[in-house]
Amino acid sequence: QMADPFLYDTGKRSPYGCLGHEVQIEHIKAYVCRPSFFTDKAVIVIHDIFGWMFPDIRYIVDLIAGHGYITICPDFFKGTDPWKTTDHWADFADWLKDHDPMKVDKEADVVLKYLKEQCDAKKIGIVGFSWGGMAVHHLMLKNPQLTAGVSLYGIIRDSEERYNLLNPTFFIFGEKDHTISHDQITLLEEKLKQYCKAAYKIKVYPGQVHGFAELKPEDMKPADKPYIEEARKDMIDWIKMFI
């Protein structure tokens, strides 16, 4: 029996009126939000298991765009169904086989091409949450076009080649995340020390559960709010440092 990875109810969310718009890029739909002024800096946001249309992830896209970046969240599930709150966790492993966060390279290339050719982006960063955090971990090891990355609570697997990051990467975790053990975070730290030549940072936020950093203000619990805001500020600061 797999534990439900979200300790809060993802079904009960306040609605969100998005600031951006949807576009079609080759075989992928994407949600894009641009700042009001021209910029050649962009950020790709990789959604979690709930997909590119989930209100929380669109809120994050708009938030990053507000800091002066062309921000895009592509549908990395390519039109297939995201995980739904009504789905059963017993089926999660099977669902994951068809939604592998390590098989995002083709879609990432399509989006990078779009940002460079259609949006004149010169520097491109990447941010991913949960499933997307694993995808960021993978892409920061494979794709030198990504200037900097932030991986938020991406589950870590033990393997030698996963730790020589090409460019600066920041790993954000919640202390009470029961999908990621403290041992895994310690292991990541040891492997990064051993193999990583790029700048990196790991930070664990007290008392926070899996998925904590995506909540919209009205969905936050008062005790968690300072940590959520801190994690988001840290995320933006990391991007600003390199992009």
Automatic annotation (TrEMBL):
<protein>
    <recommendedName>
        <fullName>Carboxymethylenebutenolidase homolog</fullName>
    </recommendedName>
</protein>
<dbReference type="GO" id="GO:0005829">
    <property type="term" value="C:cytosol"/>
</dbReference>
<dbReference type="Pfam" id="PF01738">
    <property type="entry name" value="DLH"/>
</dbReference>
<feature type="domain" description="Dienelactone hydrolase">
    <location>
        <begin position="28"/>
        <end position="241"/>
    </location>
</feature>
<dbReference type="InterPro" id="IPR002925">
    <property type="entry name" value="Dienelactn_hydro"/>
</dbReference>
<comment type="similarity">
    <text>Belongs to the dienelactone hydrolase family.</text>
</comment>
<dbReference type="InterPro" id="IPR029058">
    <property type="entry name" value="AB_hydrolase_fold"/>
</dbReference>
<dbReference type="GO" id="GO:0016787">
    <property type="term" value="F:hydrolase activity"/>
</dbReference>
<dbReference type="InterPro" id="IPR042946">
    <property type="entry name" value="CMBL"/>
</dbReference>
